[in-house]
Automatic annotation (TrEMBL):
Organism listed in the record: Trichoplax adhaerens
Family of the protein in this entry: Belongs to the short-chain dehydrogenases/reductases (SDR) family.
Keyword GTP-binding attached: no
Lineage: superkingdom: Eukaryota
Pfam families, alphabetized: adh_short_C2
Name this polypeptide is given: Dehydrogenase/reductase SDR family member 4
PROSITE patterns with a match to the protein in the record: ADH_SHORT
Amino acid sequence: MAELRHQGKVAVITGATEGIGYAIAERLGKEGAKVVISSRKQKNVDQAVNNLRSQGIEVLGRICHVGKREHREAVIEDAVSNYGGIDILVSNAAVNPIYGRMLKVTTEGVWDKIFDVNVKASFFLIKSALPYMKNRSGASITLISSISGYSPDNLFGVYCVSKTAMLGLAKNLALELAKYGIRVNCLSPGLIKTQLSKQCLRTIAIPNISFIFRYGLPEDCGKIVSFLASKDAAFITGESIVASGGQVSRL
């Protein structure tokens, strides 16, 4: 049985009906948090809510396209109206609509979509949640960046740049939100077996990306976010934990 180190806490996780986001919600829920999850499709939300409730986790679910202000604010309102506030916020939702070299991305729309969802939406989600996180004991925010924020990749250059931006966003917000008792950190996963990484899994051999000869699992990420949101990480803010199986990370 998991330690109940998040008992009484309220956690909001975006992009949380599968993959890394779902694993984070599951871990936080198993450790006692009430979780509010979201993604873009109602059927995915319903399925994830049912799966989490079957494990005894208290959970609410809502459709949310994080690029839309009214959707972001509705998720925050759900958490506050049902549970009274927010202790843990995890910005996980992200997109990568194009693969290929960055200089071959010829439309501004692709750049706008990636940065709107991956970076700008994270900032405004946090801004909406801030009034309900201020001065709550142990409040924390985790942004999901990526090893690709450190290491360029020819398959998805624009996505890499957006994930580098997340590292800077975490550092700046950590500075500004410290006065409210809120810590801000990043998790930067390596190659994790998810829907988003399918293209990479088809083209990259394990020995090239991991010292420990396996791909990462969403559960690996859930454990780290739970740690970052806990008292055990009370002196960690403005940092990024790289979970890559040994893949080198350098800025």
